[in-house]
């Protein structure tokens, strides 16, 4: 059986999203063997692949630098001990492959020698058959080499990927992600958009305890939580305090919905107050290292500063659980808004309570996505988009940001950066005229096969209701529409 690649690894090797590979599988173009694909089939379906060892790393770096960079360059390389272990593993695989190749060459040579003897026998019929068989064998050997040659660069790149990062397969969900650089297993999972069970992320609470079914891990930080000898014998470890040395299979708890995320109350410091427009501020809060905010993309939280409080959508990705962004609009008569625009200072403490709400991403859907943000509906849509980017679940993503005449696209540059960094993402800013439905009809006309998409819309009630009515008239499946009314 040829070497098999997981969907996530295959996507990284050919430089496309995981959703793009899944779409080829669903359409029957790419065969699978127990959920995995062969390098030969992968190159057949993606023939224009440029096999450059740094292609995927450049792509990821571009996304993070231009869209929502959250990691620093010095963390991208594994430490020497882990790098040595991964090199040893790859070297072992290469040695095994060389031994196997040498063995098969010997077997074939022996077979050829035997056929030579048969061909020199006096029985004419036997000799003719033996001669034909030898020609066939020689042709088959040449053919096998020509089959291997095109995929050698892909296998070489896969070996490099194995050295630079470890692949983790979660059970029972089947989710996959990669551990890169000096990240812990938990950090890598969060960066990949997965919602593993955790709280302190510092080795104190034990909430991220999971069982390592196969593969090797290394402790990278000490922890106060005590794992019993019996648990150690069963393979349990704290994901926040260990990194992956080799590829892993891990049994771990994950949140499957908003109900699985507990309500939290966390004092966070003001990291940034950026005035985007005259009446819009981006408020950046940072939680303590040992008390991070666990939430799902699209959810809300109540903010309290002084005696003022108000609920806002978290506008950032859950993959960066310490640094949370909110968009705060100046509102006449709103005490919290007045405090943020007039009194709030950097490093001041703002209490976060939440998360709330169930306007979240349908991560199991195989469809591409149309996002429609209307005015301040951009906040939850922003979070959903960054989460979808981290998961790489959608083959295509389209963002339409519609604003009223008196509003602005206050994060226009960020949206354009997404479109520049990702070849499967498009962005179109729109201004609603006197007939708001014209903008919605314009969006839906852009997609001939609209039923191939999930549609997420957030904004005023009139916009959400109008979108649903238009889609109902087109007999669009209601289960593929996710609407949220922003107060």
What are the salient characteristics of this protein?
487 residues; alpha/beta; Ubiquitin-like (UB roll); six-stranded antiparallel β-sheet; five-stranded mixed β-sheet; 13 helices; 18 strands; 23% strand
Describe the structure.
- It is a single chain.
- The chain has 487 residues and is an alpha/beta fold.
- The chain has five domains: 7-49, no CATH class; 80-155; 166-251, Beta-grasp domain (Ubiquitin-like (UB roll)), CATH 3.10.20; 258-356, Elongation Factor Tu (Ef-tu), domain 3, CATH 2.40.30; 368-485, Nucleotide-binding domain of ferredoxin-NADP reductase (FNR) module (Rossmann fold), CATH 3.40.50.
- The chain has 13 helices and 18 strands.
- It has helices at residues 7-14, 18-26, 39-45, 55-68, 80-119, 124-164, 185-191, 229-233, 335-342, 378-391, 412-421, 436-445, 461-473, and strands at 165-171, 176-180, 209-214, 217-219, 236-238, 242-244, 248-251, 264-277, 280-286, 300-305, 308-313, 323-329, 349-356, 368-374, 397-403, 425-431, 453-459, 481-485.
- A six-stranded antiparallel sheet has the order 11-10-13-8-9-12, covered by helices on one side. Strands 2-1-7-3-5 form a five-stranded mixed sheet. A five-stranded parallel sheet has the order 16-15-14-17-18, sandwiched between helices.
- A hairpin with a 4-residue loop joins strand 1 and strand 2.
- Helix 1 (7-14) crosses helix 2.
- The longest helix is centred in the N-terminal third of the chain and has 41 residues, at 124-164.
- Residues 52-57 and 68-74 have low confidence and may be disordered.
